[in-house]
Amino acid sequence: MKNKSEVTIYDVAKALNISPSTVSRGLKDHPHIRRETRERIQAMAAEMGYQRNKFASSLRKKRTETIGVVVPRLNSYFMATVISGIENITNKYGYGLIISQSQESVRHEVSCISTLYNSRVDGLLVSLAYDTENLNHFSNLLSKDTPVVFFDRVAECQGCMSVVIDNFRAGYEITSHLISQGCRRIMHLGGSMLRNVYFDRFNGYKQALADHGLEFENELLIVSELNNKSGKEAAESILRMSNRPDGIFAANDTTAVAVICELKKAGIKVPEEIAVAGFNNEPISQVVQPNLTTVDYPAMEIGEIAASSLLNKLNNTEKFNVSKIVVKHRIIVRESTLRTGNH
Amino acid sequence: MKNKSEVTIYDVAKALNISPSTVSRGLKDHPHIRRETRERIQAMAAEMGYQRNKFASSLRKKRTETIGVVVPRLNSYFMATVISGIENITNKYGYGLIISQSQESVRHEVSCISTLYNSRVDGLLVSLAYDTENLNHFSNLLSKDTPVVFFDRVAECQGCMSVVIDNFRAGYEITSHLISQGCRRIMHLGGSMLRNVYFDRFNGYKQALADHGLEFENELLIVSELNNKSGKEAAESILRMSNRPDGIFAANDTTAVAVICELKKAGIKVPEEIAVAGFNNEPISQVVQPNLTTVDYPAMEIGEIAASSLLNKLNNTEKFNVSKIVVKHRIIVRESTLRTGNH
DNA sequence: TTGAAAGCGCTAACAA
DNA sequence: TTGTTAGCGCTTTCAA
Description:
Two copies of one chain form a homodimer.
Chain A: H1 9-16, H2 20-27, H3 35-48, H4 54-61, E1 66-71, H5 77-92, E2 96-101, H6 106-118, E3 123-126, H7 139-143, E4 148-151, E5 161-165, H8 167-180, E6 186-190, H9 196-211, E7 221-223, H10 228-240, E8 247-250, H11 253-265, E9 275-277, E10 294-296, H12 299-314, E11 324-327, E12 330-332
Parallel strand pairs in A: 1-2, 1-3, 3-4, 4-5, 5-11, 6-7, 6-8, 8-9
Antiparallel strand pairs in A: 10-12
Chain A binds a DNA duplex (16 and 16 nucleotides) through helix 2 and helix 4.
C-alpha cells in the first residue's frame, strides 16, 4: 500500500499527463522546459505535497548535498558561533550539516572523519584536534577529491583551503600592549605547538619581546591544554615562582579567567601586580573581575567564509584559486591589563 | 569509467563467485548465511575497500539512519553538553545527526522542522524555541509516525516523549534555600510562561513563598528573554525600586550573572543586601564574584536519555510505553546566597 | 521542447 | 543456505 505522504514525480507526471522526466526537469527550472509547462508542474507538485527524495537523487547524482563539520569541542561560545555562521550559509543553499566532535583527540578525529567519509559528505569543514600530528586520515577523502576547508586550527595540505586570523600579529599586538602597560616579565600560557593557532601566538609573543628588547626565557612559557584545570595549575606554578611575572598572555580566555581567579584568591592584585590578557573574547571575559583584555575573534565570519568557500569549491564557482583567507581580528583592551597611571 | 573507490556488493560478489544478495546478507550478519561464507564475504569486502552506500540503502529501506536535532541555541555550555550526550549514543549505534538551531524563534523552528522533514530523518530530538505556541509544525512528522522526543523545553503531545528535570521542585528548593538564608522579599526573573521550564520554576517559587507564609506580588516577577541584556535591564529596574528585594531567583545563570555584575557596579552587596541564585550550573557561575548558587542540570544525561529513548522507539526495543522521564537535579549552594552568620 | 528507458546500489520477497 | 528478481525514486542520455 503506497503511503499517501510519499508523492513521487511519477504521481505528478500522471496527474498532468506528461512524463516523469519532464517533471524532473520542470522542478529544477531546466531551461529546455517551456515556461508554461514548468509552472504547471510546480503548481501541481506543490498541490500534491511532493517532496524530492534525497536518497534517490543522491544515489543517481552521486552527491549528497550534505557537508561534514569536525570541531574539537562544541562547548565554547566561539565554536557555537562559528557553527552558526556555517549554518547561515549552508541552509541558504539547501545543504545539510553533519556535526561531530573530535573531543580534542586525534583518535576520535580519525573516527569522525571515517564516519563522514562513509556518509559520503560532499565536503568537509575541519578544525583540528589538540594532538593531531598529520593528515593521513584525510587521504581517503582527498584522493576522492572531496574538498576540505580548514578553519581556525588549520594545517598545510595540498589542495586544501584554510580560513584563519593572523594569530602571529594578534599575539604580537597583545604582548606589545602588555609591554606598553609597563610589563617587563611576561609569561605565555600556550597550547600545543602542533597547532598553528598556538604556535603563531607564541611566536608573535616572542617577536614582541625581542622587538622591545626583552628577553624570552623558557621559564616564561607554560604549555597546557588550556582548560580550566590547566589555568589553575598555571596559577599555582606562578605563585611558587621566586621571580614572578608581571604580565600574562594566555592563549585563550578560559585559561586567563582561571588564572585570574586563582591569583585573586592568593591575594595578588590584577592588573597592578600581574596584568592578564586572554584570547577569543568569550562572554566570560566580561564577567570576570577585572574584565579581561582579549582578542576579538570574528567567529561568525570565519564560519560564513569557510562555508562559502567550500560551497564555491563544490559548485566550481570559485573565482580564484585561493589557498588561505585571513580574517581581521581586533584587540579589546579592558581592565585586566590597564596599569597606566598606576605606574 | 567506474571510479575505483566505489566498490559495490556486485564487485564483491563477482570476486567471490556468489550472488549480491548473499553478500548483502553476509555483510550484516544475517542468520541465514553460513558462518564460513559470512567470514569470506567480510574479509573480501574489507580487502576491496567496500563501503556501504547509504543512499541506495535508505532508498530501499526507507530509513535514513539519521536523526534530526532542533535546539533553541547552541551557544551555551548546557546545550553543548546535551549534544555531546546525544552524540555519545547515536554514534554508538551508527546514526548520523543533523543539528539545527531555531534561534529561539518559532519562525526558524518551523523551517528547521520542515528541512528535517524533507531530509526524512528517522526521528527528532527537540527543545522548543522561546515563543512556540503550538505543535502544528510537527503534524506532518507525526502523521508519518516519525517519533519525536522533546527534552528540556517540552510540550504535551499525543505520542511524543519528553525528558526533563523536575523544574517545579528545583524552583521550590532554591526559593526555600533563599528563605532559609533570611530572604523575605524574593524576586523571580523568569522566562516565557509558554515554556514548561519557566512556568514550572515560577510555580515552584510561588509555592515555596506560600509554604513559608510569604506573599507573592506581581512586582516581584520580571519575565524576559533571560539573556545578558535582559539581566542588565532587570538589575536597573531593581535599582529603581523603592522597596527592593533582598533575594533574587533567576531562571538561568546568564541572567543571574548579569544581575550580579550590575548590582555590584551600583554598590549593592551580594549576598548581604541581595542574595542571587541562578539555574543550570554553567561554568560562568564559578567565575562571577561571589560564586553563584544554582541548580545543577544533568545535561549529559538528558542528552543520553533522550537519544536512547528515541533509538528505542525507532527500533521498537522500548520495553514500556513511557511518556515522560524525569532526571535528578541538584541544588548547588555557593557564596551568592550564603548569608547565615551575617544575620 | 518532451519522452523513453536505463541504471545509480541496495534490499527483501520469493523461489530453489 | 543461497540465488533470482523486482523495484526504491530520481536523473540523464538519447531519440523523437
